[in-house]
Amino acid sequence: MKATAFLPGVCGLALLLLLLLPFNAAGVESRGPLGGYHWYTMFMFGDSFADTGNLPRTNCRSSLSRQWHYPYGTFNGSRSGNPLGRFSNYLVQPDIIARMLGRLVGPPAYKRMVKHYCDPSGMSFAVGGSGVYEVPEKLTTLAQQIDNFERLIKDRTISKWHLADSVALVAISGNDYSHINSSDVDNMIALIKKVTTEITENVQRLQKLGVKKILVNQLHPVGCTPWLTRPTNYTVCDSRANMGVDLHNGHLSINLRKTMNVHILDLATAFSNIVNPAPGKGSRLAKRFEHKLTPCCESFDPEGYCGQLSKNSKRLYTVCKNPDQYFYWDSVHPTQAGWEAVMKQLQKPMLKFLTKEH
């Protein structure tokens, strides 16, 4: 949804006035984690886990525009839903974090904002399918997203008021690794070192630009996504892929261990507690999902995608009737219920980090 147009330079004043009111931009009371009124301006960077609508909305759907078409955003599988530009059946990670901080949904997409206007809730620069380095689709990289962010700071679209209590999410989910042979261990390790180093440098760059606190996603257990469990009829995770995830997360933790005001979101554990718990274990949250490795929206073709149509507009996929019972929405992305279950596990340490004086 596009915001109402504002004149250049008015954004900071408008935000200051809003901060004096006990309601958030969505018109609901915004209470911080400590129970009092608190405001966080959120800035999102990364890929489809954090994208709230930056990819172009086109009439012709593709793997990179499907989030604007049925069945994305329909929540319960009915045609009455309205696609939101998110890679899920409804809300995604930034929306769940925003709700934990007192808002209704995550910040709007950078590409869908009026020039010289920054929403009081912040902005998402994340682009579905992107990575740290340039992927084959030549999407906006993490560094280029931060370039866009820096440009808005320099022209004062993003003011000091936005940065005063700012929180950034850096969500890199593995697109840099999608085109490398996982059996080539030496090249994989070398790439992991490069990717995690680049993430670290971009996190530090965000801090230099004035972001107060930064949340950084660990890599989730990629080997348990339907994309890689489909060959075993959605029964077994790919251990080689998950070994690469462990290496990525280990290097990332080492790189960031001395960086102040950064909190790593342990997606690896939170996902695994639900979709791949240790033998004899399993969280209560896992029990709510009847289907943990099977996607709600499944393509007929292993190389296809959810929402794909044939040349004569025939569906090339199936959609479940009860998304809330599925952890995964499509071949790689969680359902809203999946994201809620993941972030519920991470909520307490995240809020403790955000409310800690820096």
Give an account of the 3D structure.
By secondary structure, the protein is α/β, with parallel strands linked by helices. The chain has a single domain (41-287, 332-355), classed as 3-Layer(aba) Sandwich (Rossmann fold), CATH 3.40.50. The chain is built from 9 helices and 9 strands. It has helices at residues 11-19, 93-100, 142-154, 160-164, 185-208, 226-229, 239-256, 267-275, 336-355, and strands at 41-46, 122-124, 166-171, 213-217, 262-265, 291-295, 297-299, 317-319, 326-328. Strands 2-1-3-4-5 form a 5-stranded parallel β-sheet, with helices on both faces. Helix 2 packs across helix 9 (336-355). The model is unreliable at 1-37 (pLDDT under 50).
Task: Offer a concise description of the structure.
Helices cover about 30% and strands about 10% of the residues. The chain is of the alpha/beta class and about 350 residues long. Helix 2 (about 95-100) packs across helix 9, helix 5 packs parallel to helix 7 (about 240-255) and helix 8 (about 265-275) runs antiparallel to helix 9 (about 335-355).
